[in-house]
């Protein structure tokens, strides 16, 4: 699962893979368009629905946070 | 009563003293009292709009809280994923049914107030009321700011991004908090709740830092923005055909700086005042003219407004049922371009609303559409930038960064001609003057001093703009300038402090019928 998420991230925003901070959105690494495309691909890939309430800086602060979000949604 | 007035200093001094004298759990009462005094007596603001907005958002928040609790209870009783999904869908729809009338009411109030002002002179004549009375009732100060803040709160409670406030007075404080009530920044409840909870002890260093930021804001407002404003107003106030294009270029560049100095100066003052109460407001500017693209510019300019539109309009639209369905259809039809359709629609929606939020004129509407189109084009073309750069042998570096920054300035420059012009006709004439009669030599002759600013004013502006640039470069490198100065030897440190204060006192634009109290963004 993690590899697939990293693949999606790589397709839309390669920089996110090497980013080692914890505020990817505020630091301009990932913009809102990229977030929308990443969310759309994650939904298609894992058959989950990522509601707008999950699209906050906290859940997109780095690649680990995105992986954790998908895991949480899959467990729900 | 504005920030730059003696009554405000007195109000702040009383509030500040009481804040650190009362028991820590009750500090927020002092802030609420100061906020109401500032709004009702200081600004002579009629609080009806504020109270109605606060009441509806507060009530809606409480009801959402109950719905969310019931949803959790019912979800706990569900055995499988399907039934959980059904419960979630049902409660989502209930939340929407509750939120929608609240939004319609609050936005209706905003639209009514914003557009009713057009009919003011007639209404005052018909009512036979004193001049200005209806204007205060009809045009409550800060309505554009507290309405969006309240809507953001209701959305956040519904999304479980913050807990609903149960104390109506604390909620009123959140909307009416005096440093940010008239011009922002837009606060989020999740960020402010803990800070309003109290328990703040007095700190001499924090008081000093707050005052330093306030004085720096006043410096930008009085020494830079108001001085630039004299020239800009004069140039834009004359018949375009009588002014060379180069003077309009100069006035527009100075207007770009004026708007930035004015608004960021206000925000510095608001943040400085708030810092003295140990309450950190969110940053609203991050040196926007260093941006290398328009998208980045808007991530650095009026940050909290951009974040508001992104979180509550863009994401709400894109991730709504219709948004998702449209996205799927488009992706199925056009493989590459299809995925851009919904983000482009969301972008256009955001910028259309940003335009009409800023002003009632056609110029502002066009300004919004202009940025929306530019952002959308960038979105579609972004994947090709790397390829083109490679083909043209462009390497990243200082020169390329400067070219990107200059491109951003040019785009903002054109947009600012639109909003600074009194009419579309004037804007057209000004754009035409850039092509038909630029006459750059006018900038080198004495003609430039015929618009209210002397040679001395231009030299002073050059000096203070260089100081501002130096501060910005330090900040861009990650320095906390106040801490940086505090670490310097006392003579250097105090020379800097006295330099700013003396320049402010001696060269600030005061009196002479020039209203220093009015901030440009207040009119939004």
How far is the N terminus from the C terminus of chain B? 18 Å
Helix content of chain B: over 70%
Distance between the termini of chain A: 16 Å
Query: Helicity of chain A, in percent?
Result: 55-70%
Principal-axis shape of chain A equals globular
Commentary on this structure:
The complex is a heterodimer of chains A (76) and B (524). Chain A is mainly α and 76 residues long. Chain A has one domain: Non-ribosomal Peptide Synthetase Peptidyl Carrier Protein, Chain A (Orthogonal Bundle), CATH 1.10.1200. Chain A is built from four helices and no strands. The two termini of chain A are 16 Å apart. The mean pLDDT of chain A is 91. Chain B has four domains: 35 residues; 145 residues, no CATH class; 165 residues, no CATH class; 123 residues, no CATH class. In chain B, helix 10 packs parallel to helix 21 and helix 13 crosses helix 15. Chains A and B meet through helix 3 of A and helix 12, helix 13 and helix 15 of B.
